[in-house]
């Protein structure tokens, strides 16, 4: 009887399957972001190991995010036919396998190729996670469940950078990359064991892609928010690695990696913003998150290390508040508009990772030309565009689930 109710309305907090679902997707999100950005704290070391420039070293991040973005265009629509659960399971497992191979890459170009393949393999999880949550979780808990998943990605982003930085001090970038891969393997095992099979998925074999996901003005604004917000966010952290490893701070990879502890505020920011969005509405919460990110970037312009860390913390909390609410808004808006939720989520994440690749990669150029002032300027402009898009969303005609 309990399972029948869950099948009809979706899982509620307190249901055993809701707990399994939450743990599995938290682990999946953790693995995805830990593996995706694992080379970020290693950029200065990659410069020395492969004799490349700072802007070239950023390609180790950009190739993975670009491969992920391209694959999302296929993974999301394919999930409308093939289903959600198996795609997510295989995605995390394959990603971990490519991560292990990356630790043994003999040349720079081999490493970039493996990072690209790693990004492609990753696509199966983020492409469908939000659509899966919308289908399997009770509608009253959508924003909360989405916030928990994004919180997992925030913890993953922190853990991946912390572990990579610490292991790099112990045994170099190869040892660090292999260690992160082991974390991915463990998370993949959790996903395979705990993730509940889909109960409410309805295949759509005749609608692999619909142009309607590109015609709704609210969805288009959300795609723009994804690209600009994450582009600024990745640019700041790419630049921060070089700033903290240089004069006057001279921090090792492990010491600089401790700065990523501020990702805990990102996890809290995402979960808190999700709860506030359920209460006050998404249109009210997203612009506030944008203002917080801008304040954080401004604080990082100060020279003292504590203020730099504070600025990164404020920006991180604001970014995950924006991303946590916006990413959950996409499937809700798509469902209310009669558009495939998997397709809309894929377009959001394609924009997200394209922005990460392009704008995040430009941080190396900005650093080479104007150091931190250039990086902060790039991020400030991008976050300002995010704010404008968020404000425009307030004027878009609403539908049932906005």
From TrEMBL:
One cellular component (GO) term of this entry: plasma membrane
GO molecular function ontology, one term from the record: transmembrane transporter activity
Domain Major facilitator superfamily (MFS) profile: 17-398
Pfam families per the UniProt record, alphabetical: MFS_1
Transmembrane segments: 21-38, 58-75, 87-106, 112-133, 145-163, 175-197, 218-237, 257-277, 284-302, 308-326, 347-367, 373-393
Keyword line: Cell membrane, Membrane, Transmembrane, Transmembrane helix, Transport
Membrane topology: Multi-pass membrane protein
Localization in the cell: Cell membrane
Similarity comment: family membership: Belongs to the major facilitator superfamily.
Full protein name: YNFM family putative membrane transporter
Species of provenance: Kribbella shirazensis
